[in-house]
Amino acid sequence: MKKIVVILLLFSLFIPVNAAVTVKSTSITGNEKVKVGDKVKLTFKINFSGIDKTSQTADGILFAGFMLDYDDSILDIVEVSSDGSFESEVYKDDETNEYAVLSVITDGIPSRSRCANSVLYCDDYSIDITFYVKNAKEYDTSISMSDVGIALVNLKDIDENFSEDDVKLIEGKGDSYHRIEIEESNTKVTNPPKSIVEDKKPDINIENTITNLETEKETSSKKKDNESSNNNLKSLEIEGYEIDFKSSEKFYDIIIPNDVNSLDIKVETEDSKATYEVIGATDLSKNNHKVVIEVTAENGEKSKYTISAKTEEMIAKTDKEEVKKEKFKLEKKYLIIGGIILGGIILIALIIFIIIKIRDRKLEKGLKNL
User: Fold this and answer.
1) DSSP character string of 10-60
2) Are 273 and 162 in a shared domain?
3) Is the pLDDT of residue 16 over 60?
4) How far apart are CA 349 and CA 27, in angstroms?
5) Quick one: 31 and 152 in the same domain?
6) Which of 20, 144, 242, 308 could form a Cys-Cys staple with 50, CB 3.0–4.6 A?
7) Is 37 left (phi over 0), alpha (psi -120 to 50) or beta?
8) Distance of alpha carbon 228 from alpha carbon 234, whole angstroms
9) What is the pLDDT of residues 346-364, one digit of tens each?
């Protein structure tokens, strides 16, 4: 079992399981050339596949972690930060001389990264780690991440009966490396920043995290009960074109000139608290000549209105193809009829031939008897 999983197990006792969510890739990005005395911020990312951000009942991320390897005689970690989604700590195991980064979600998750249930985290993981360059003992040095682990939970399981059995631990190798070149500096640093690496096990209180999530879940549930589910449009106008709009009708067809590749669309929702997004109107050719208006109700429920905008050339081409199809169907029909008739003629001829043969044999036999 990977080291990061062992570390996670130390304070959670969670059991790794197979799940739809997997670690797709990892990466480290940032400056590649620094000087002694510089602070270099590197971004560590874990990309997942299988996370369903749209479902109210999907699993979300509770915490994540990975193993971190770097030369601590050259670099010190002085800051760990994110977009508010995670509270992170870096821990060093003195026995193995290895580092682990552990992040637990907070209530500061941006809306773009929240699951549909508005509580858990349903996005790729990203944190920034700032290193202080202490010296140029080596011309260059590398930083690597490996042994990724994430813990998934389902919002419906977060209650007073919550236990480690309700958590799914996903692991992946996810090896990534980042190399930086180091130059000497003429500036002398008199007060270098201190390392924030802990020499003890991470102080991540899962019980408090779950309690906070329970509170947020209850608040979110009450909020959603009072929120509108109206995701209908009040009006839909396409400049230069007329449509018979009805809020219950979700599909519309229009014909546009051959040189038109965009539409000016004006939309108004029935509920002022609902939001909408127009997709594909600025470049019809790249979106298969379809425009989608996605309306999101106050409570998060979505609906879609689709406009199919075909050019005159596309219509003419479609008509020609339809004519060809009809002609082919007609020709095929006559071929089938002709085949049936020909087959019938051959069958009748074969029957007549057999009858004549039988008659000739009887006649020949009768003549011999005489």
Assistant:
1) HHH---B---S-EEEEEEEEE-SEEETT-EEEEEEEEEEES--SS-TTSEE
2) no
3) no
4) 79
5) yes
6) 20
7) left
8) 15
9) 888 888 878 877 776 766 6
CATH number at residue 39: 2.60.40.680
Report the number of distinct structural domains present in the chain.
2
Question: In this structure, what CATH number is given to the domain that contains residue 266?
Answer: 2.60.40
Same domain, 254 and 297: yes
**Are 114 and 29 in contact, with CB atoms under 8 Å apart?**
no
| Residue 354 included in any domain | no
| pLDDT surpassing 60 at residue 221 | no
Q: Which amino acid is at 268?
A: E
CB atoms closer than 10 angstroms to residue 85? 23
Report yes or no on 66 lying in a domain.
Answer: yes
CA distance 362 to 352: 15
pLDDT tens for 250-295 read 999 999 998 889 999 999 999 998 999 999 999 998 888 999 999 9
Does 133 lie in the same domain as 281? no
Confidence of residue 174 (pLDDT cuts 50, 70, 90): confident
Across all residues in the chain, what is the average pLDDT? Answer: 81
Report yes or no on whether pTM surpasses 0.85: no
- Cβ 127 vs Cβ 85: under 8 Å: no
**What are the structure tokens assigned to 303, written together?**
């609906």
Q: Which residues form the domain of 275?
A: 233-313
Q: Rounded to whole angstroms, what are the CA distances from 31 to 134, 250, 296?
A: 16, 49, 40
For tokens 């991320």, the residue is 61
Q: 369 pLDDT band (50/70/90 cuts)?
A: low
Residue 36 CB partners (closer than 8 Å, separation 6+) = 133, 134, 135, 136, 182, 183, 184, 185, 189
**Secondary structure string (H, E, C) spanning 2-13:** CHHHHHHHHHHC
